[in-house]
Recover the amino acids of this structure.
């Protein structure tokens, strides 16, 4: 599919993240105003809430966009998603007769603040990148036992914490936690010394389920995708995670990018999961390509310094797709809801430079990596970590917007309120 | 504290679960009516929503009880909780001048259906019963390595799934899942053959947190408690839980009792956690008694058969209190919200008859237990499992109401909708 031209000139630049082909969904506010739903187009955000209110957008019998989150649109289902996309293309396309109606409701992106684009119902984090699982397994259990026995048969996942999902730009406070190294006799309660990122893609569930769903049905339930950084305190995790999995190590924050890139916008970039080493059971088999070709990178900027790109990889490296993960999530009958967020798991590639966490990049701290003005094994206070993602189309790109967070120093005493 | 006498005669019986001392919070409906908030007193439920609407109950500037869940009262905080309890005691107490106003709004419990008493924000399940952890650890890792190294230092927990929490009386469908025993070369997708209960107490978070809280602050955040059965598919869990913990094995359903017994009603029954084998770090130490003396039992009724009580234990057997669990839950900065539900972990006692799961009672299926008309290693289709809990006061009891669920057969094909 080629670039779809818009009368919004900036959207037609071949490297602009928000061409007419994209139309990602976010929530914005002007200074002093309340947050409201918007769609990015070129250098602007279109105030779709006002367009619905005035009848220019007519999605359902009752308003869906009169709230500062996209959940009502998501719950309305694929027909409404398609109708919205089609109508926006009509209104924003080159030569549109609707231009005069719409143009007053374009707000420059430079003038707005961005907020959480949806209410997160529940958050699940997966472990579906083979290179990541192999790297971590090799560090902790040796190369011969790197992949757990179940790994090639089910997309391993665990429930995370929805309350700590935040939007890009929210500062992240280094957590305290209980830690104990093998050389200590008893644990200590202290700020994390091995605070890390996880480069992931997040799938946003649009329509709910009641009972097990197939992989194809699961794919149809997904409204769109965001970049996702699952901040991880490796030292807290190492002490707490046996036998019931990660808990407080992952509960400080999970940052997502501010725009939900819809599944429709990603369609041209579908690609297949890698060949299966062992056949999957029928209920997890994919009826077609379910991954996407999304180039990803991570930048680290020390306080007052310049950014170093520390990792470059691609979402197509995953072994399991979000649709497979969502299908697995329902096998027990577990109801899935509008606004559920599924993290892909850390996306690492085959090469050293393609690793999606500092744990892997520095190989557990043994091989610090170079950054502007020094080196890093894990995150230092004041560092800003930014994830970026791009699909390269035919004369255009689809961008996700940055997924960024700066790490603040731990509180001197977490129980003494300022 | 003695029995507080009410003009509702049935509430004064020394063995009635709902005396004036209790006043648990639920959501009820009459046939054909919408669900609404109510408080149990004797054989009745008091329609508190109508009392607020008419000004007899005056809790806040805006109504808190005009919705079919208790979250708004919970969020309003301890002063409102105390004011509500105090006003209801006044209205329902023997000799109350308010009797004529209130009496028309008593609805016989026999005539109502009970619903989820609150909206579950997120659900966390802990593993804080020492006898349970030791039993399970002995079965899986041997007696010498029964307790994981971290167990005596932190209340181990994992995030569960809020969407599958259901109220007592909701049937539970036996789940399908991926399983693989040590004797099989490859996994199979089949109905669970080791479906089980976990006898737990659930703590309901009333007020939210922002940053780490002390154990005393955590205790003050808790609105009340429910009985909780965390249905568990042991065969699915065994295959999936390494390395990231239980996932689909616990996602079919979690049943809670329909009445939130408030912390205020439980005050006379406070008791201490057992002596610490190793000292806890300061942030997890308790400023006073944080457990409760709650006698618990589990009944199993085969389809068409009679009930057998298969376990009797007490909540005071726990090693960690809900307040300690909640404090630990915030150490990373994880925000806790109104409506968060914390499962205590399986409550087993020291004796064989005091074990809170069939896994323990039948010792992994090796020692089936006797029930009416046969024996059980795990749950069979048609079995009803019921948890009950009682605090024995001075001439009265505090009851929780039953936490019950009947297990339906697995679907013949989970992907073929009826």
């Amino acid at each position: 599919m080629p670039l779809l031209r818009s009368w919004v000139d900036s959207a037609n630049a071949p490297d602009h993240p928000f061409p007419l082909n994209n139309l990602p969904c976010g929530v914005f506010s002007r200074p002093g105003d309340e947050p409201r739903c918007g769609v990015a187009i070129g250098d602007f955000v279109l105030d779709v809430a006002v367009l619905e209110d005035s009848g220019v957008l007519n999605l359902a019998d009752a308003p869906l966009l009169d709230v500062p989150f996209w959940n009502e649109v998501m719950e309305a289902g694929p027909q409404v998603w398609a109708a919205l996309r089609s109508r926006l293309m009509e209104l924003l396309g080159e030569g549109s007769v609707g231009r005069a109606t719409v143009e007053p409701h374009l707000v420059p992106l430079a003038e707005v603040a961005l907020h959480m684009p949806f209410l997160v119902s529940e958050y699940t984090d997966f472990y579906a990148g083979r290179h990541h699982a192999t790297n971590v397994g090799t560090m902790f259990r040796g190369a011969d036992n790197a992949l757990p026995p179940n790994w090639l048969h089910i997309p391993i996942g665990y429930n995370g914490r929805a309350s700590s999902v935040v939007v890009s730009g929210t500062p992240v406070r280094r957590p305290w936690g209980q830690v104990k190294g093998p050389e200590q006799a008893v644990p200590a309660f202290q700020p994390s010394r091995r605070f890390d990122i996880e480069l992931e893609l997040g799938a946003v569930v649009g329509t709910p389920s009641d009972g097990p769903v197939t992989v194809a049905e699961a794919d149809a339930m997904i409204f769109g995708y965001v970049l996702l950084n699952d901040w991880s305190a490796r030292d807290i995790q190492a002490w707490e995670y046996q036998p019931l999995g990660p808990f407080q190590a992952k509960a400080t924050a999970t940052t997502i990018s501010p725009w939900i890139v819809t599944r429709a916008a990603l369609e041209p970039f579908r690609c297949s999961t890698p060949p299966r080493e062992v056949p999957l059971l029928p209920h997890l088999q994919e009826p077609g390509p379910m991954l996407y070709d999304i180039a990803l990178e991570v930048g680290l900027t020390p306080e007052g310094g310049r950014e170093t790109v520390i990792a470059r990889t691609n979402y197509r490296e995953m072994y399991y797709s979000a649709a497979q993960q969502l299908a697995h999530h329902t096998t027990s009958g577990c109801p899935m809801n509008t606004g559920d967020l599924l993290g892909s798991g850390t996306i690492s590639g085959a090469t050293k430079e393609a690793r999606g966490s500092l744990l892997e990049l520095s190989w557990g701290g043994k091989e610090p990596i170079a950054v502007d003005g020094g080196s890093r094994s894990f995150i230092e206070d004041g560092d800003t970590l930014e994830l970026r993602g791009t699909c390269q189309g035919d004369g255009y790109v689809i961008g996700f917007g940055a997924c960024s967070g700066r790490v603040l120093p731990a509180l001197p005493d977490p129980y003494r309120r300022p």
Summary: The first helix of chain B runs from residue 48 to 53. Chain B has a mean pLDDT of 97. Chain B has two domains: 9-115, 123-408.
